[in-house]
Write a structure and sequence with these properties.
Length: 156
């Protein structure tokens, strides 16, 4: 009987070491998966913020008559109104946040639609804009602010 128990211990030791190794490997994998998920979520949020900021900046820079840019109340928040003229017709591009998304609405100047009618650009929790003394200030959900003068982007 003594011979059998020594033999059992010798067989049990490699099994125990292998089990410990497998447990450590699973712990490392779970930790890595959690870190990856966290980084992925952060990168997605950063991409969304950069895309929204870049899109809005480009639209402002494309506006020929920057002195006519206005901020209006639209739906539940503020709306950036960018005027343009095509074939002697006046149009307004409205940029605003609706239902967790940055939206754009391009219409003739004399037509006003609802926020639901806009085209979704990118997911964005919040976007607000104010205008005073020739300075346009845009605030994104991340707390990032963009400042524009009548013709050029001011230092951030």
């Amino acid at each position: 009987m003594e011979h059998f128990s020594k033999r059992g211990l010798h067989g049990l030791l490699p099994l125990l070491v292998l089990s410990l190794f497998a447990l450590c490997a699973v712990a490392v994998l779970l930790s890595g998966a959690d870190a990856y998920r966290s980084l992925s979520q952060r990168d997605d949020a950063s991409y969304t913020q950069r895309t929204a900021a870049g899109y809005i900046s480009t639209k402002i820079h494309q506006t020929a008559q920057k002195e006519l840019i206005t901020v209006e109340s639209f739906g539940d928040g503020s709306c950036l109104c960018l005027p343009s003229t095509y074939s002697n017709e006046k149009y307004i591009t409205r940029l605003y946040c609706f239902d967790g998304k940055l939206c754009e609405l391009f219409t003739p100047a004399d037509i006003l639609l609802t926020p639901q009618d806009g085209e979704v650009i990118v997911a964005l929790d919040n976007f607000s804009c104010t205008q005073s003394d020739g300075l346009l200030t845009l605030r994104l959900a991340s707390g990032e602010e963009l400042h524009f003068s009548l013709g050029e982007e001011a230092a951030r």
